Amino acid sequence: MSPMSASKTCLASVVAEGLRASCRDHSKFLGLVLGARNVSTQRAVQAALLLSVLTPGVRAGPAGDGPIDLALGGLSGPTALAHEGGFPDGTLALSAQVTLCNLGADAVPFEAAMSPDHPGVALQLYRVASGPGGHERLVQVGTSWVHHRFAALGQSFCGSCSGGPGLSALQPGCSDAVSASVLGDAFWLGPRQEWSAFTGSWSCLGSFFDGLPADCVRDEDGGGTAPTEARLAIDDQELLLAGATYWLEALALTANEASPFDNLGSRAVQFSWNGASWSVQAPSAGNALVSGPAVLRWGDDSGSADLNPHDGEVVASIDVTDLGAGLWRYELAFFNRSLDGGIDRLDLPRGAVLLDVTSADGDGDPSNDWTASSNGSTLRWQAPNAGAALAFCELMSVGFTTDAAPGPGELVAGVMSPGLGGGQLELPLTLPDHGGAFSDQGCALPGLAGAPWLAGSGDLSAGSAQAIALVNASPLSLAGLFVSLSSTPVPFKGGTLKPFPPFDPILLPTDGAGEITLPFVMPAGVPTGTQLWLQWAVQDGGAVKGVALSNALRGLTP
């Protein structure tokens, strides 16, 4: 019997037994596949016998009425508006003056709420300082609600303004300077979650301003808002670290934005307590507005990704320190720039040793802290619930020590509410390179219990023992392993299948713990540099199309 016939016989026996009993020879399947490279290696996927392939649609970006370009032109005059509680255990409410510039060819609507046609402005504050173990890290220490801009002043801070004060619209070439007191006025502050950072849009219906009944008639005027509520609020303790650097960041939001890359910027600010109140200033020397996310100002390497076709962007920076004795410290800052679906998971490679795992979300609430776990080759941080996912312009900081030196890698981020652009993003970034034969290639699609994990062990040398292990899959469920010698990713059940074109999939049931382990022996005669791509598909009622996908795994023969 040929190797491929043996695998098909094995597969048939599994199906015939209702997928409740394991075929005795399934552990040899991967070795058989590699030993049969000349038999149907480019066969079209026959997974339709097990699972149907559905190609999802794609969500288009916002359709603009004109070439609108509302840029952040200035950030100055940081101001302490209020302080609640006794120092050093109180809370500071911070604001600043923000200048908006119309760099486009069309007017930008500035109609007051309850009209949806107006810009929004939000503030964030970051700190760079020594974290646990003395390692430098970037953390977010505060965010504000969104200020609803209600009138355009029509100034000339950004160039020549010929339109004058339009009030209900900012004309091309004109600017609008929002004072710190106005920006922090509770009457014009509304929750962030009501805005789409991707489209720059807001709806009055059912909003904070609307109240009850939901009829787009303003019922809420912010009169009951506490002095530090809704504003950029920072605990005193966050401002008392010696030698810390602080960056104040502002974001401008508007609908139909043609160039959504110049609406975010930051400047360094300094804090000092004079015995009675906080003093805040933005030094003038060497402290010009830096366009783009503040996270890009920090770290040794940075990467970004957006969901196709541009459903929103995420950005990450990483700082790596050689500790000696074969250990490296990794500090990662992950920033959701404009992804409305939110981020609730981070996966990245690790080495054999794992020490001092940390995380910080900057909100001071331990009940929504992300938790870390590992499957031996991948380190994962997971949000405990939907409310803990990273919304737009929120940042998560994580750190760990491992014995894997830095090298080119891929950070995988899971989307809490997947749109038609997909359920995860992969960011190219300097990450631990454990030097093993198997590497995590991302593209997991979560089910009811989250995303299944696939890890490999062994060096893929001829005659040596190898194993691949699936965990966190749906228990007692039908699963199909896709294997290929190349990767041309294709849409599959709302996710992405990377081993393509594959061999016939092998079908097996998961055990009561939702796991499958496949040991195999590497055959001789496989050329150096041969790629082995693997990915499981598992029936799961909690998945978007009824099928969860593990991360893809790539093996490379020595």
Concise account of the structure shown:
The chain has helices spanning 3-16, 29-35, 180-183, and strands spanning 70-84, 91-102, 108-109, 120-130, 136-143, 146-148, 169-170, 175-178, 189-190, 195-196, 201-202, 232-235, 245-253, 264-273, 278-281, 290-291, 301-306, 313-324, 327-336, 343-349, 354-360, 371-374, 378-382, 394-402, 406-419, 422-432, 438-440, 453-457, 465-471, 478-484, 487-492, 495-499, 506-509, 516-521, 531-539, 547-549, 553-556.
Draw up the topology in text.
Elements: H1 3-16, H2 29-35, E1 70-84, E2 91-102, E3 108-109, E4 120-130, E5 136-143, E6 146-148, E7 169-170, E8 175-178, H3 180-183, E9 189-190, E10 195-196, E11 201-202, E12 232-235, E13 245-253, E14 264-273, E15 278-281, E16 290-291, E17 301-306, E18 313-324, E19 327-336, E20 343-349, E21 354-360, E22 371-374, E23 378-382, E24 394-402, E25 406-419, E26 422-432, E27 438-440, E28 453-457, E29 465-471, E30 478-484, E31 487-492, E32 495-499, E33 506-509, E34 516-521, E35 531-539, E36 547-549, E37 553-556
Antiparallel strand pairs: 1-2, 2-8, 2-12, 3-7, 4-5, 4-6, 4-13, 6-9, 10-11, 13-14, 14-15, 14-16, 17-18, 18-19, 19-24, 20-23, 20-25, 21-24, 22-23, 25-26, 27-37, 28-29, 29-34, 30-33, 30-35, 31-32, 35-36, 35-37
Amount of helix: under 10%
Question: What's the tally of helices?
Answer: 3
For the record, the count of structural domains works out to 3
Task: Please mark out the parts with pLDDT under 50 across 5 or more consecutive residues, or reply none.
Answer: 1-65
Report on the biggest sheet. 8 strands, antiparallel
CA-based gyration radius: 27 Å
What would you call the structural class?
A: mainly beta
Query: What's the overall average pLDDT, rounded?
Result: 85
Number of strands: 37
Task: Give the CA-based shape.
Answer: globular
First-to-last CA distance? 29 Å
Strand content is: 35-45%
